[in-house]
Amino acid sequence: MILxxxxxxxxxxxxxxxxxxxxxxxxxxxxxxxxWLNAIPFAAxxxxxxxxxxxxxxxxxxxxxxxGVVAVIIALFxxxxxxxxxxxxxxxxxxxx
Length: 97
Prior knowledge:
With about 100 residues, the protein is mostly helical. It has helices at about 1-25, 30-55, 60-75, 80-95. This is Branched-subunit amino acid transport protein.
């Protein structure tokens, strides 16, 4: 019974993820809608990351903000995202050291 429940939950979870992948190949969206949909991952990441930037060190939120600014500046150079992450981590580490 437990195995059937796990398999059922996997199917229910995967179906909504697979259907758009097959449908979106055949649908042509308007350019403005396509740009809007492409911006959603960035907005979600911003919503997830920004609160953590402010609370990286509870008593000193400016350190997290400075690390975030360094990450944004590095990202503006269109380098790999790992370099922006490493730059932000290094900035926070050096400011707390």
